[in-house]
Amino acid sequence: MEHMLQRILDKLEKMGTELEEVKANMATKQELEEIKANMATKQELEEVKANMATKQELEEIKANMATKQELEEIKANMATKQELEEIKANMATKQELEEIKANMATKQELEEIKANMATKQDLALVQQAVLETNEIVKKLESKIDNHEQLLTLLSHRSLEHEASISSIRFILTK
Fold first, then answer.
1. Nearest to 132 by CA among 144, 140, 121
2. What's the average model confidence in pLDDT over 140-156?
């Protein structure tokens, strides 16, 4: 019987040790309340699940979304609103374009004008003719000056002759 009592005592001791281990591993009521306060309910978990995307949806989103690098490239190549407004301010309207078209010459008209315009060679010939004419005019001016001097001289002589004739008449009439 002693042996049996010893076994019972050993079992009790073992149970005591196990009880201590259970106590050490068990949570207190306060710890349990804290866990409950921090844990989500099944309803909250279902709401989160309903609002979350599945892996497949996430993969589809990833496949359709641009990378940061692609976004930066797009930003670098796109005009800002300010640049767009500046472009709009500097661009002609359809009406202005139509007015310009109405007032512009056609290629045919331009070709006709080109055909009728003087070339550089023509201008050189005209310039040469102007220079030659200028020389002729200078020669004529010089001759006219000489003629004017001659006419002045002849005019003086004529006046002197008339004065002499008057003097002779005066003398003859005396």
1. 140
2. 94
